[in-house]
Amino acid sequence: MDKLIIRGGNRLSGKIPISGAKNAALTLIPCALLTEEPLTLRNLPRLADIDGFQHLMTQFGIATGIRGKRPEDFGRVVTFEANHITSTVAPYDLVRKMRASILVLGPMLARMGEAKVSLPGGCAIGNRPIDLHLKALEAIGGEIELAQGYVKATAPDGGLPGGEFDFPVVSVGATENAVMAAVLANGTSRFFNAAREPEIVDLCNLLVAMGAEIEGIGTSDLTIHGVRKLNGATYKVMPDRIEAGSYACAAAITGGEVFLDGADARDMQSTNHALRNIGVEVTEEKNGIRIAANGPLKATNLSTAPFPGLATDMQAQLMSLLCKAEGTSVLKETIFENRYMHVPELARMGADIETEGRTAIVKGPVGLTGAEVMATDLRASMSLIIAALAAEGETQVRRIYHLDRGYERLEEKLQLVGADIERVDD
Length: 426
Ligand code: UD1
What we know:
It is built from 14 helices and 24 strands. By secondary structure, the protein is α/β, with parallel strands linked by helices. The strands form six sheets. The chain has a four-stranded mixed beta sheet, covered by helices on one side.
């Protein structure tokens, strides 16, 4: 298994290309199930999770074709063609490796009238139940059964009627499943307290391009008038706001200056606000965002929240940055329980962080030192890389398959801006 070796201390400087958004891609790909016509997605990031999802799609009998890009380019163009779906089952073996597989439930149900998806099981950042996915699908007429570790959803003869659902908790995935099912329902559906993350806007924009009728895009109140058929489309995946925010933290902790090429500041207001409060200069430009950390870093208080609040997926990276900020910062994680697993690893590098329940108190600035570390989830792994870039000496990060799930060619991008990082066979 590979590991990353980072020798800290280099000031990052230059340009980092931002890839297509993983979390958008993972909800755009299953939209291929909604139409017999080809769906072509451009700017798909080359990531283990995307490969996994493509593999899952082929299990349903869907043809996929990769085109148009040389291996040295970032992103790729993939066409999915679901003119003949041969299986409606997402098996345990694939779902277990990739939680996002649950996102086939809604579109498969809507198109085929039935879908069977293995229950995803536990996850490193909390229980992550799927009850809201199921309740929302029931509300628009799906019948749900749980048996032998699978969710089986069926539609009444003639298809889903449509209906209303008020989400008791904002859920990105449940909103996505509900929207993907409702677009092919016979009637109108309404979703209240829907998630309005930029990835959901991206999903709705694709569905509209495919012929769906959706009102309220970008708000928490979505009205969807079902249509009989959707057509194919060619669509470019939005830039990854979490990847961009991660590299912003990486540059800032080294006192560096980088241009996040292709990042969209409109999706990153909370992260940019947090960075500015920490003392980082953030300049929004036409084709990206410039990050410059010339002065001292200051402590700040942060709380994660559904969009437009601060993304929980940015919490770990900002925490590493705050280890180098002057003063005491208080962080609150309101979305997931048990999302502080990077804290003991950061402590091994010299961080002064105390946690109590969902609160973390970070005291800084501390002198970070290299260590052997390993992380248990994607963003936690990135927080260790960020700390390592500012640490004295060498850090070895193990279990980097987490990073390969979500950061396209991480070490290459960091090398581009002067980081001393290499991937070696362990
Ligand atoms: C998505 C993102 C993930 C991000 C998260 C929150 C993808 C592939 N993943 O995950 O990176 O961290 O949004 O922005 O897009 N919940 C329930 N019941 C449900 C569903 C969720 O109680 O049926 C709870 C969760 O436990 C959590 C909260 O709702 O406390 C939010 O989770 P949710 O927005 O659904 O996260 P995901 O869609 O899984």
